[in-house]
Amino acid sequence: MSGGVELARELLTRPHQITGPVIHGEKRGRTIGYPTANVDVFPNATIPTDGVYAGWLTVGEQRWPAAISIGTNPTFEGVRARQVEAYALDRNDLDLYGQEAIIEFGWRLRDTIKFDGLDPLLVQMKKDCDRTRELTA
Description:
By secondary structure, the protein is of the alpha+beta class. The chain has one domain (5-132): Beta Barrel (Elongation Factor Tu (Ef-tu), domain 3). The protein has 3 helices and 6 strands. Strands 1-2-5-4-3-6 form a 6-stranded antiparallel beta barrel. A hairpin with a 2-residue loop joins strand 3 and strand 4. The relative contact order is 0.26.
């Protein structure tokens, strides 16, 4: 599936967005250098298909370019619910819990896939962030 965010952006004349409070996740992202804002998406929200996206994260008056992940994080053991999380590029100092966040989807980068361990995942995450940086500049 393509995710359709590029077409949505064209038809809406703005990026598709979802809104919700930032909630606590598994806190794995902060231990691997990519702290994410996990967003508790409203039940009636239209969420793009699982995958990795480039876009923006907005909380209050602050807006950051963000690599966005939708899915169940299949590289890691265990069964978990589908999550929507955004990494504000190059920011590891944000405390956004409980605040309302807006995630805007600009471009679909790739499908969610299961990697053979943390190292290959980290290599791909760096590529995803580099591509996000280029697209959102």
